[in-house]
Fold this sequence. Notes:
This protein is α/β, with parallel strands linked by helices. It folds into two domains: 2-89 and 277-294, NAD(P)-binding Rossmann-like Domain (Rossmann fold, 3-Layer(aba) Sandwich), CATH 3.40.50.720; 91-269, NAD(P)-binding Rossmann-like Domain (Rossmann fold, 3-Layer(aba) Sandwich). Helices cover 30% and strands 18% of the residues. It is built from nine helices and twelve strands. α5 links the parallel β6 (135-139) and β7. It is elongated. 38% of the residues are buried. NADPH dihydro-nicotinamide-adenine-dinucleotide phosphate binds next to α3, α5 and β7.
Amino acid sequence: MALLFKSDVDRAEQWSAALKRYDPNMEVRVWPDAGSPADIEYALVWKPQQGLLKRFPNLKAIFSLGAGIDHLVDDPELPPNVPLVRMVEPGLTAGMTEFVVMSVLMHHRRMIDYLAMQKDKMWAQLPVPLAADRRIGVMGQGVLGADAAAALAGLGFDVAGWSRSPRPVPGVTGFQGPVFWEAFLSRTDILVCLLPVTKETRGILNAKTFGLMPKGGVVINAARGGLMVEDDLLSALGSGQLSGASLDVFSYEPLVPEHPFWTHPRVIVTPHCAAITVPESGARVVVDNIRRLESGQPLMHVVDIKRGY
Ligand code: NDP
Ligand code: OXD
């Protein structure tokens, strides 16, 4: 059995070593050294070029190296009958929760203001509400959204989550579907987006959404750039409807040097690093899942391609 590894980030050695630690018999072939296409039964990939995966006639499953699978379903030649599995692993989840907690605290504790004041050597204490009086809204209550929401609730914030179906998270008020969208936004001071980008969610962070939030709100997008209408965010920041944003993902990556986000005084930019799959814990999940399939059990974390996540 051979597994094809393909990533645009050079972590092939770490991944091969981690996969072999859990399955010493696994043969890992790193693209472009795939050998005979007929040997490849599994693919573990991040942003493979369009049409690559259809070259392997005996593929049994495609594993995404990330939680998101938009980089795969955008391929019109993706083999239609091969299960697509997204990455769910504890290292990735912990990384995202750290990022979200850090970002919320940066805005809650007014760090953008303090960093600007430091430049001017200005000494002043700014008022900050109690966490219990700061309302956080987390869009997406899946693996990542639920964990981040629970951690924020643990810090004492007033947290709500928004999802399609009921996803009870202790300490978090649940809102479901379009019917409760406005109610969710109207009680949200800091909006955290952890939705997948799909036909339904593309562009959901737009002028109308920002306008439904209380004035002076904050947006944190750690999911996908395609969820946000970037010009609408700039306008909302310009008008004061929003007072800040933390952006880890962009409609075009890497963010071009002339993009206004880089120098905007109310925007914190990070280079799509909110959460990165950890080879050690990720490899274990992939090997366990292959063992499940080989022993006739159903695969875990299979994507519903029609639904888009
Ligand atoms: P999950 O599939 O576990 O969760 C997705 C959540 O979004 C679910 O709660 C789902 O609702 C909800 N959702 C989907 N569509 C809608 C909709 N139309 N209306 C309301 N809710 C909706 O995904 P993960 O939590 O694992 O990951 C989320 C995203 O985070 C990934 O798709 C990826 O794009 C991004 N990501 C970004 C990273 C980064 O470094 N910046 C790193 C890792 C992931 P329901 O529960 O009802 O199904
Ligand atoms: C992911 C990502 O989807 O890193 O895991 O963006």
